[in-house]
DNA sequence: TATTGTTATACTCTATAACTATA
DNA sequence: TATAGTTATAGAGTATAACAATA
């Protein structure tokens, strides 16, 4: 039958060659996570990038675009239209920096706090779905390892 | 000075909010890995997707496009132009399947074996670079956890 | 009717180059 | 001269819809 291909694939999840490379696995799992996350955020018409910006501003209250770019991993030039969208929806405000007139002091508008709570719930659900195959201990292990791999 | 932003970012790697979500971390690290990988493959004018196809065919000798799609995570419709490119460069051949005339039996050409060796070296270098912040034990841990998260 | 491969298309993400205004 | 923000643009990745050939 023509189910063969699909079955083999489901059981082995591809040949050994691809499973041997941690880098390839990270890229694949990352895409998977991204897809699940994007799907969840879609209910609120938000991008993964937009979400990252909102989360950071939720803690810092105000940041330059340069900082936001570094913290989210988004390139500064690609951050521009992202902030434009957020600003048009009234979720974010580009103020002026008193110490350097080149900089914009980006901050959340008061309206966003309710949204952030809902987003946390959506995010949590997506993560639970993704990490379902792992035990609690394994989830903890994984979470401990990943931050070390993030660097500029 | 205006180095402050960059320094803070490098030290904390972004605020706690983003570090709290395993899903977000996986997406970020996955992008990082992807970027490093793509950069390495670029020296041979290859895409990450093309690389995945080559690796699988290197083990299976022959596979249907449907199978390749499943094993690489590439959508079947997007696989078409990828195979076109590989075929035009003489790296891959679309043969006919004797048991099902709808299927193409995709296989490597003999010329590719030398290329695959060089690719393994490039891949290894990229992974070493990415995983540099981890100890050998941690690398092993991470590699063990990731395959569990891959599923159709 | 379901499946394999295909096309056309569109939308997002990422990256290259160059500009402006400020420092 | 260097930096913060911006624009235009092009490439790759991904997704929606529909089709022809074959099972």
Task: Give the arrangement of secondary structure elements.
The structure is a homodimer of 152-residue chains.
Chain A: H1 4-12, H2 16-19, H3 22-42, H4 48-60, H5 65-72, H6 76-88, E1 92-96, E2 104-108, H7 113-130, H8 136-145
Chain B binds a DNA duplex (23 and 23 nucleotides) through residues 2, 31, 35, 38, 47-49, 64-66, 74-80, 100-104.
Q: Care to describe what's here?
A:
Two copies of one chain form a homodimer. Chain A has 152 residues and is mainly alpha-helical. In chain A, 63% of the residues lie in helices and 7% in strands. Chain A contains eight helices and two strands, in the order H-H-H-H-H-H-E-E-H-H. The longest helix of chain A has 21 residues, at 22-42. Chain A starts with a helix and ends in a 7-residue tail after the last helix. Chains A and B meet through helix 1, helix 2, helix 3, helix 4 and helix 5 of A and helix 1, helix 2, helix 3, helix 4 and helix 5 of B. Chain B binds a DNA duplex (23 and 23 nucleotides) through helix 3 and helix 6.
């Amino acid at each position: 039958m023509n189910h063969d291909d699909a079955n083999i694939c489901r059981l082995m999840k591809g040949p050994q060659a691809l499973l041997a490379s941690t880098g390839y696995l990270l890229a694949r799992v990352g895409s998977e996570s991204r897809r699940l996350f994007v799907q969840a955020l879609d209910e609120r018409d938000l991008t993964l990038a937009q979400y990252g910006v909102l989360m950071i501003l939720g803690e810092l209250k105000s940041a330059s675009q340069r900082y936001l770019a570094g913290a989210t991993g988004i390139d500064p030039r690609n951050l521009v239209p992202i902030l434009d969208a957020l600003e048009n929806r009234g979720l974010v405000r580009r103020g002026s920096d008193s110490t350097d007139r080149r900089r914009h002091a980006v901050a959340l508008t008061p309206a966003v706090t309710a949204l952030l709570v809902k987003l946390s719930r959506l995010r949590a659900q997506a993560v639970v779905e993704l990490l379902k195959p792992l035990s609690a201990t394994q989830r903890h292990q994984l979470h401990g390892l990943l931050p070390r791999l993030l660097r500029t």
